[in-house]
Amino acid sequence: xxxxxxxxxxxxxxxxxxxxxxxxxxxxxxxxxxxxxxxxxxxxxxxxxxxxxxxxxxxxxxxxxxxxxxxxxxxxxxxxxxxxxxxxxxxxxxxxxxxxxxxxxxxxxxxxxxxxxxxxxxxxxxxxxxxxxxxxxxxxxxxxxxxxxxxxxxxxxxxxxxxxxxxxxxxxxxxxxxxxxxxxxxxxxxxxxxxxxxxxxxxxxxxxxxxxxxxxxxxxxxxxxxxxxxxxxxxxxxxxxxxxxxxxxxxxxxxxxxxxxxxxxxxxxxxxxxxxxxxxxxxxxxxxxxxxxxxxxxxxxxxxxxxxxxxxxxxxxxxxxxxxxxxxxxxxxxxxxxxxxxxxxxxxxxxxxxxxxxxxxxxxxxxxxxxxxxxxxxxxxxxxxxxxxxxxxxxxxxxxxxxxxxxxxxxxxxxxxxxxxxxxxxxxxxxxxxxxxxxxxxxxxxxxxxxxxxxxx
Length: 457
Description:
alpha/beta, eight-stranded mixed beta sheet, UDP-N-acetylmuramoyl-L-alanine:D-glutamate ligase
């Protein structure tokens, strides 16, 4: 999973570590994928995020690989990965070759690098890791965890020469490593919500300002119309840059029906008129993300090469792991990891028509878990909620979660020492027709998928 690369070390501490006093940074021979992955995982122990100027300088030292590509840049609070996935699927349905860089990964770090529908190979991962590693020297610039992977991705995609390269921001937008690129042809911003307030600001307008930082001269922007405050920020930014700006809202699409774990809905588009679409998911919030991706494709292509049939095929064939994903029969894993994500998650749950549901919940310390618990416990949608501690030091302690859920007397909460024990307990006591949901963290989604892949159930 992702690593924050944060910390409270002083500049002196960092200089000492970079100078070689921390054995992690001392040059060593790395010859395998596993060794490269391990090294990247250790990076947060000795370096942190850099300025965008430093990131641009290192990217330039790599030969400006970004300048060889047409880049679609995606930012936002929730739905970024899904919008990237729908964009990729529609473009590929139209015959374009697409590369995509997303984060975090769920089970395999190589999930972040996709080109022509395939993850990067272990051999290419190691080769590109070493290409950067061999350029690191003493107290010079050392990429953070996310920056290192971003540089590898851009190098890889430049080699692959896709028609389009889709980049998802890691955190924010204006100062995110991915914003060091040039050659953007389109900026896309998804729904804005309150998350990472310690870095992005305490209001929706402030957060929108950071996300709007991905907009650039010469590239149109497509944004989700979250609220008047965020919309005004986007309009002001686009006006300063002199670029076209397009909005998508719930008024642009309408739900039709659920059928066999699919969703039918209709979308009013600029070039295709009213178009009927089918999503192969039970996640109602994906109508929003698919609608945003379709509008982005329209703005990008202008109706020249991408037809309504390409859009239908691309939307229908899209799959994005960890978003209402059925990992076992009637066990659905969702990556909702903040208040707005939980809101969208609960809207989908409420539409499932079930009379019996349970939830497995785990969350990270840096999230507003009080608000998430309030929404989950107060929804009345779950007969029981199981809480578990994930395999991460950032996981909220079980006692903290138990006490929080205890403040809601109508909510039954069971505490388990591990994610595996919690899911096993829910499965063994499941009643006929009961559906099990898993939500609270992408780390939790990844842990569940890993357990299932190892046939633990």
